[in-house]
Design goal:
The chain has 9 helices and 2 strands. By secondary structure, the protein is mainly α. Helix 1 runs antiparallel to helix 6 and helix 4 crosses helix 5. Catalyzes the transfer of the diacylglyceryl group from phosphatidylglycerol to the sulfhydryl group of the N-terminal cysteine of a prolipoprotein, the first step in the formation of mature lipoproteins. It is found in: Cell membrane. Pathway: Protein modification; lipoprotein biosynthesis (diacylglyceryl transfer).
Length: 267
Amino acid sequence: MEFPRIDPVAIGIGPLQIHWYGLMYLVGFVGGWLLLRWRASHPNSGWTKDQVSDLVFYVALGVILGGRVGYVLFYNFGKFLNDPLWLFEIWTGGMSFHGGALGVLLAFWLLARKFGKRYFSVADYAVPVVPIGLGAGRLGNFINGELWGHPADVPWAMIFPGDPMGVPRHPSQLYEFLLEGVVLFLVLWFYSARPRPAGAVTGLFGLGYGLGRTFVEFFREPDAHIGYLTGGWLTMGMLLSIPMIILGAAMMFWAYRHDDRPAPARK
């Protein structure tokens, strides 16, 4: 299958260039903001539209700052040691989901203190829309022709520009778009549509993302400057995702074991 060569620059006005990858971040933030405002408009939601706007703003900061710091620390710490100012060169590319996730968790804590809410009332409310940004980001990776997969002979394999081998490969960005974006969003959105024990929705996110990312790592080429960590199969993405699986499952178990909600009245 031929790779659809899309200009990574969506809009160019003189020296000003707006890339599709950057627009994908905007899609994620705006899409999440609209859906959370819609839920906030329901009776007894516990949220106002102004609070949702603050939530999305804090999360955006957590994603961008945490994602950049995480990429530098997890994936290219050596380059940072040689050139510390590279940390601030966001326009050169390089973002980490796991770093962004840590930044978002910190944003939830700050928002919980600001609004006087319990931590998981913030986290459980917000995480169902996070896959919108994850899926949009993977589409941005695909448009950029980056983070491709292993050589493959499946009918949908593609030859990506910039690949020195020039061989058909798994479009692993689209696998991640489907699993981390579409599937995870649907699971979380419908699961969170009914009241759940505190922490259960957040735990399901960690479990679902960790499983999806670990699965795709078997098809995705590891970062060239890191390669496989051991055994010819363990990647940095796996190493960072496996704890999410364990922690997410433990959180769900803990949430249901310590569910302090009143039992529904019998009719």
